[in-house]
Fold each of these.
Amino acid sequence: MAILFSFIALMLYLDLELAFGAFIAGMFIPTFFQHKSQLPGKLESYGFGFVIPIFFVHVGTSFNLAALYVDGLIQTAMLVTALMIGIRLLAAMVFKQVGTLKDSILLGLSHSMPLTLLIAIATLAYHQHSIDKFHYYAFILASLFEVIFVMLAIKVIVHPPNFITKIFREKS
């Protein structure tokens, strides 16, 4: 904990993003404390159980629902969603030689849910004034759209509803 707070204090002193200090501390701990193999697991449970939910609550409370009425926001979020899913599906086609097309699609879809990463990067970029509020909201919405769409797509591919299986049986 002292290492974490030291890096956070350093980030405050250097006027950098605090999450960057936490990231550096996270890299520092397993590198220099290899004899404490249980430490990363203990910190992981603390992070996922306490810190990360607080971050998402903060992001959720900072999202203004009235922004949904801003011209072009939903379209931009949908475009980002489509591009992120499309790129991952295209990259997953490399594995088609190893498995089936279905497996490759599922692999691409399973890597298309960067909710935590996309929101964290968008938040960092917004607070560093690298993107404006419009694009910040577009990335937040895109991450939500992506998770919803991909989870539904995976569910339909793995366990197709009866009406879809009937359509494919009739065609064959």
Note: The chain has a mean pLDDT of 76.
Amino acid sequence: MFLIDTNIFLELFLNREKADECESFLEEVSSGDLEAVVTRFSIHAIEAILNNPKLILIFLRNIENSLGLTVYDTSMDEEMAVSMIMEEKKLDFDDALQYYVAKKLGVEAIVSFDKHFDKLDIPRREPKEVIRTLP
């Protein structure tokens, strides 16, 4: 299982440079060929950044219909633990939350373009790296 960081969805929905790579990866998750998790925090951040009702609806329908994707809701206690990780690992709240959930769920890697994850004990993979390992 992989944890998908916010920037993977944004790359696709904002049609950035690596949108095709992200689309291929997310299609593997959507079909159930890959198992992944996304935090509810990421979903809200994406909704706020998209700030377009039609795009948000498309995004949420894709999340809802994705066979291999689970949405993880953090509790207040978990978010307090995240605040402690921020200081310990020198991360902002968003990255600390992703790291916390990744550790808790024992994911194989965090799928992200964010190099802040490179200094942690969970591997960071870009979508193309994960796709290359598929049979």
Note: The two ends are 16 Å apart (CA to CA).
Amino acid sequence: MISDGKQVCLFGGPKDREVAQQIIDTLPSKLRNYCFNLAGETSLNDAVDMLASCDTVFSNDSGLMHVAAAVGASIVAIYGSSSPLYTPPLSTKVAIVNTDAECRPCFKRECPLGHLKCLNELLPAQVIAAYSKLTSTK
């Protein structure tokens, strides 16, 4: 995304700050200035305003995903243990990504079977393909 001229903002709570920084640290050094770690740094009001300025939001099934839908952003909605049949973003500008793991949806925060298939089998290429499909219809 950054190589295509986009800026990336990583949202989340204070507990997400470290993993967001790890994501930034994996980028080539010349691209790091285009990726911002906002985890734990924004109020809810700030996050709403910032999501409203985003073209596309990549999000798990979370409150911020629903905020992004409410402010009109396009969304790549990533479902692990949950299901879009129960908690879909209320928007027409959505691409849904999930696996066909036989154990999902279990709606658990931690995998009761210990394998995390619903997330480990969800490949980055699937997310990028969903984004490409979503943006080609704009």
Note: The first strand starts at residue 8 and ends at 10.
